[in-house]
TrEMBL record:
The lineage of its organism: Bacteria, Pseudomonadati, Pseudomonadota, Alphaproteobacteria, Hyphomicrobiales. This is Uridylate kinase. Keywords: Allosteric enzyme, ATP-binding, Cytoplasm, Kinase, Nucleotide-binding, Pyrimidine biosynthesis, Transferase. It catalyses: UMP + ATP = UDP + ADP. The keyword Flavoprotein does not apply. The gene is pyrH.
Length: 239
């Protein structure tokens, strides 16, 4: 089965917003369970999976900064939010028998293990899904950048970015009915055209390390597995 796979080892970036469902805030457990089920299906296909989870459903540092507060403190609050989401996703994966571990870039040993590349690789070697929490551990970064960074550290074949829509469009398809979806782009295309899919630092890091980015809809049930198996709808960013 693994021989038919398009990618054997991937990192999936799940934004915090993907977990909130229609609630508009926080974690919708049914949605977390559905995403976990897609991850479980991909595991059963034989794909090694690690995950970077965002925190925007709970907190973003800019929210503090925009109201005159300290950006660094705001970003620390955002990083903590990603840990909450990581624990929720691990719980959803555990319910369906998927062995997953949370590694945080910010040490909190009573709650989860701390990130190091060696520990992450050792867990992956044992067949566990590794969930990276705490972003990069630094303010002024995003979890998209953390995703590109961890993707490079894990030596993945592709970075999957789950979004609200099924790929990268020429304009926001929710605002502009004439927007068209790209099948393939280069990292340079994304950077030069300023396509809003991941922040510039993330795309540049992926380009530097020759990591393809696969942009797909996280809300389309089973799509992750379909793309890994060679089908589905996505935009692939590669050189
Ligand atoms: N954050 C940070 N450093 C990082 C990653 C995240 O300071 O390396 C903070 C930042 O405040 C960000 C918040 O955590 O707004 C949540 O992450 P992000 O906005 O990337 O989450 P997503 O949009 O994917 O839900």
């Amino acid at each position: 089965m693994a021989g038919d796979l398009r990618f054997k080892r991937v990192l999936l970036k799940v934004s915090g917003e993907a977990l909130m469902g229609a609630q508009g805030f926080g974690i919708d457990v049914a949605v977390a369970d559905r995403i976990a089920s897609d991850i479980g299906e991909a595991r059963r296909l034989g794909v090694d999976i690690s995950i970077v989870i965002g925190g925007g459903n709970i907190f973003r540092g800019v929210a503090v900064a925009s109201k005159g507060g300290d950006r660094v403190t705001g970003d620390q609050m955002g990083m903590l939010a990603t840990v909450i989401n990581a624990l929720a996703l691990r719980t959803s994966l555990a319910k369906i028998g998927i062995d997953a571990v949370v590694l945080s870039a910010v040490a909190m040993p009573e709650i989860c293990e701390s990130f190091s590349q060696l520990v992450a690789l050792a867990h992956a070697e044992k067949g566990r899904v590794v969930i990276f929490a705490g972003g990069t551990g630094n303010p002024f970064f995003t979890t998209d950048s953390a995703a590109a960074l961890r993707a490079a550290e894990m030596g993945v074949d592709a970075l999957f970015k789950g979004t609200q829509v099924d790929g990268i469009y020429s304009a926001d398809p929710k605002q502009d009915a004439s927007a068209t979806r790209y099948e393939r782009l280069t990292h340079d295309d994304v950077l030069r055209q300023g396509l809003a899919v991941m922040d510039v630092a993330a795309v540049a890091l992926a380009r530097e390390n020759k990591i393809p980015i696969v942009v797909f809809s996280i809300h389309e049930e089973g799509e992750f597995g379909r793309i890994l198996s060679g089908g589905g709808r996505s935009t692939i960013v590669s050189d």
